[in-house]
Write a structure and sequence with these properties.
- The structure is a homodimer.
- In chain A, helix 1 crosses helix 12 (298-314), helix 5 (99-116) packs parallel to helix 10 and helix 7 (154-166) packs across helix 8 (170-179).
- Chain A contains 14 helices and 17 strands.
- The longest helix of chain A has 18 residues, at 99-116.
- Chain A is α/β, with parallel strands linked by helices.
């Protein structure tokens, strides 16, 4: 009998208890013995099937030598950070879905886990139930990873899908997402790109093996996105998607950011719809590989946590290094990155051509929408000062 | 310095030597020491950069205590089987891309590896460079896997893509694939579904944890597929794809087969084009997750082998069990499986309705093409004896 604890009984914590109970047989077959939730840390006691396991005293977990793995689903960086440290110090493995904590303190917590000879695993922090961190760090370990990009937030992808399919305005699509339970009452973290930003930081940390400072990563959401640009892009054979993107630059540096992009409709990621997530990884040997599925939700995210729990128990004493150095050097502003840019301006084709030379016109209808040749973000900004810019987005190549 | 050997210097073997050399830095960073190919087993000596590493004497590898991991890329089940056994007996880890050997003897070789406390890993045997076996067995370990299906053969998918896109006949599309180097001079194993069949056997073994006898798995290829059916399907909103499919049946049994299917165009797998592969896995907690990329090729496949080599070295002494019992019980004929079926008959709508009751007509043009309600393969066969059937395929639901 292997005993674990859960800290926090929100959506994911509840899901972990459910998965452990419902898939008891599968889990026992792989572990060789049964897995049981012994203790659940809550702030307020609630009635329900887990009532007798609840405690509001963290020391009940910290000091219990029978508990070998702790699943942290508290969220945020306050109590979650303190309790995670103390669990690792106490020689317990810790598993989490907490993307904010991993993006901000992952490298440091991994180092603590290493010293204590235990694991700190966080597959569920990116892409919910989609296996992505493990394939990236283990299965693609023989590659130099050159780029990772993806649709990392289901709420914004649902909103964009409604805008493309039914021509809904952003505000209406957001209300629809809230009515369906896909968006929070306060949708800020999703809509402003912050949730996707934390995830692209974690992906970049693991892809390049070096710490990314989340504060250095520009995060642009979809709140200011115009339905008009979505429609022009669609007619020209592109889909607008909110991408998190991390790129190894030609000079050896690396960068990361979140922003809406135009994506050619032949790219498989252009067809990722509704609340689905997808992550594309480009390795120098493997080429492009895509991982696709539900990026959130109680059971998908919980099942990724439970798989990490199982891995902690099987990879004894601990899993191999994933390679995440605290070194932050070499990070460059994404404005260095060259891509084609989409512009919609209050002005004529002549205005566009005077600023950018050769351009591809997408529409001329009182305004002018066009694509530039590849230019850096810096040049795009500089040249666009000559223009009356109504909208500007990067185009994903390929 | 860690030393390995390669057996066989065909496409994949050559690729392994290249990846080890080209990505030396990435590999050393993860392993903590350099990785070097010491010996390469060949049948005939060839000139080239690896000339001084070659031997035609297997015992040079078997008896070399410095060689800790052997990559088997000989192919087939003759020498590959014998040498793999002897390497494992000698206490060396073995890594392979050999799908035939794994499908036919995987369970037995894993048992031998277990006894010798070494690893037998074969991520590259399915999906080339796409991480799939590892995510299936580790990252989704907390799920009961209910279904796995996929486009497992790039050659046939290229041919089907040409038939859909340009209306090419099968024979012309095959010649085009051969001219581009995507199809062998003897394309039998690809076109008859045998290659995809071996891969679905391995996926089913790992998804359900029990041995599948490859001889019990019906493998139908695309050689008899008519361009007419591809066109009718396309007009009705379906794509024709060759799928390998393994399903947990409602009664607790399981089945597997390879056959062309009609797939609704909204399903992401319908849009997997050209030589790309994709595998969809359905878990009871995670839902559907898809893995997509290049399923073959020198460097992608080789990089999956090298990642397995790295895992052998890091997961010391050996990786956790993946769960593959030699027990073959519970396998049922895929004819038990209920799905909608596509038929094209020399006959009228009345003929169709008399055989299958309610049907959905796709075309009436001298012949009648229609979709049935869900029926078992057995019933589809039985009822179709009343009809003059020109073509019949299953429809993938969802």
């Amino acid at each position: 009998m292997i005993q674990i604890a859960i800290m926090g009984l929100g959506t994911v914590g509840t899901g972990v208890a459910k998965v452990v109970a419902e898939n008891r047989r599968q889990i026992e077959r792989k572990l060789g013995e049964p897995l049981e939730v012994k203790t659940i840390l809550v702030r307020r006691f609630k009635d329900g099937p887990c009532r007798q396991l609840m405690t509001d005293n963290f020391e009940k977990i910290e000091k219990d030598g029978d508990i070998r793995v702790v699943v942290e689903t508290i969220g945020g960086v306050g109590a979650a950070y303190e309790y995670t440290r103390r669990c690792l110090e106490a020689g317990k493995h810790v598993v989490t879905a907490n993307k904010q904590l991993v993006a901000e303190h992952g490298c440091e917590l991994l180092e603590l886990a290493r010293r204590k000879n235990v694991n700190y695993l966080f597959e569920a922090s990116v892409g919910g139930g989609i296996p992505i961190l493990h394939p990236l760090t283990q299965c693609m370990a023989a590659n130099r990873i050159d780029e990772v990009y993806g649709i990392l937030n289901g709420t914004t992808n649902y909103i964009l899908t409604r805008m493309v399919r039914t021509g809904a305005f952003f505000s209406d699509a957001l209300r629809e997402a809230q009515a369906k339970g896909y968006a929070e009452a306060d949708p800020t973290a999703d809509v402003q790109g912050i949730d996707a930003g934390r995830k692209i930081c974690i992906l970049a940390d693991l892809a390049f093996g070096q710490q990314i400072d989340p504060d250095a990563v520009p995060m642009e959401g979809i709140a200011k996105l115009s339905l008009r640009d979505v429609k022009i892009a669609k007619r020209a054979g592109y889909r607008v998607k909110l991408l998190g993107r991390a790129v190894r630059l030609p000079g050896g540096g690396r960068t990361a950011y979140v922003a809406p992009h135009l994506i050619p409709e032949e790219n498989p990621i252009a067809n990722v719809e509704d609340v689905f997530n997808a992550v594309m990884v480009r390795g120098n040997a493997t080429g492009e590989v895509m991982f696709y599925g539900r990026g959130a939700g109680e059971l998908p995210t919980a099942s990724a946590c439970v798989a990490d729990v199982m891995e902690c128990l099987q990879a004894s004493p601990r899993r191999e290094e994933i390679g995440w150095s605290p070194e932050t050097g070499g990070f460059e502003d994404p404005l260095e990155l060259k891509t084609r840019h989409y512009f919609r301006i209050e002005g004529s084709l002549t205005d566009a051509a005077m600023a950018f030379g050769q351009v591809e016109v997408l529409s001329e209808d009182g305004e002018t929408a066009f694509l530039t040749e590849p230019v850096s973000g810096l040049d795009a900004e500089r040249q666009s000062r000559l223009l009356n810019v109504l909208a500007c987005m990067r185009v994903l190549e390929g």
